[in-house]
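Researcher: Go.
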Amino acid sequence: MADPWQGAMDHAVAVARKAGEIIRDALQNDMKIMCKSSSVDLVTKTDQQVEQFIFDSVREKFPTHSFIGEESVAAGQPCTLTDNPTWIIDPVDGTTNFVHGFPFVAVSIGFAVKKELEFGVVYSSLEDKMYTGRRGKGAYCNGLPLQVSDQTDISQCIVNSEMGSNRDPEVVDRIFSTMRKILCIPVHGLRGVGTAAVNMGLVASGAVEAYFEIGIHCWDIAAGAVIVTEAGGVVMDVDGGPFDLMSRRVLAANNKTIATRIVKEIDAFPAERDDAPKQEKQ
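Model: Structure:
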C-alpha cells in the first residue's frame, strides 16, 4: 500500500533544504535583530521569514492541514495538537547559535496525524546534514541509515543536555545539580550543541548516547523524537514515564538501560505545558 504521507514528507525535506538556504544567506549578510524577548531567547527576522516561507509553501500544497510554529505561538496563536494532520515547526532551532555564528542551526519539521508523530525532518543547515525519520520506515542522514549506539555501560557514554534560556537562579541550580550528578556517575562526557533537534540527531546517529532537557518546546523535539525512535532509540519523559510532546520535558537515549540510569539523576523542575490554556499564561 502506498504511504499516504510520503508526499508530505518529500515536501518537508524540500522545504527544509530551502529554509536552510535562507538561513545560510542570512548569516552571510548583516543580521539586524528585531527584538529580544529575553537576552537569551533571541528572536530574529530570519526566524519569522523562514517560518512564513514554510507555512506558505505547505499551506499551498496541503490547505487543510494545521500548524504549530514557534513564531506563530509567540505571536499569540494557540499551541494545541488536534487529530488533524499537523506540521510542528521550529524554523531556526538554535537562534542564539545563529546570532553568534556558532555552527549548529537547524530547521525542524515534525508531522503528526491523530496526535501521533508520523515523520520528522531536521536539516542542520550549516553542516548540510539532512536527518529524516518516517514511522516504521527507519531514520537516515543524507540518505544513509542511522543506528543508535549499542553502548550499555553508562561510564562509556556521552550525554547531551542544555543550560536552557531560564536564568532563574533556582532553576539554574537544579540544572547544574543534575549535570553534576550525571558527570559523577561517572559518564565519559557531557555536551550540548545548542539545539535540541541536532542533539537528537546525534543520539540517532550514535555519536552520543543520550540527550535530556526540561523547558524545551514541542517544536524543538517533535521531528527529533521520530528520528531517534526510528534509529532504534527510546524517547521518554525525564521521570521515565511515557513521552508527552506538550510537557516540555524529554529524554532521548540509545536504549532503556542508559535512559533509566540517567532518569535516577535528573533533578526535575516545573515547566508550564505548551498546551496550557492561554489565559493562564502570565
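Model: Residues 272 and 280 are 10 Å apart (CA to CA).
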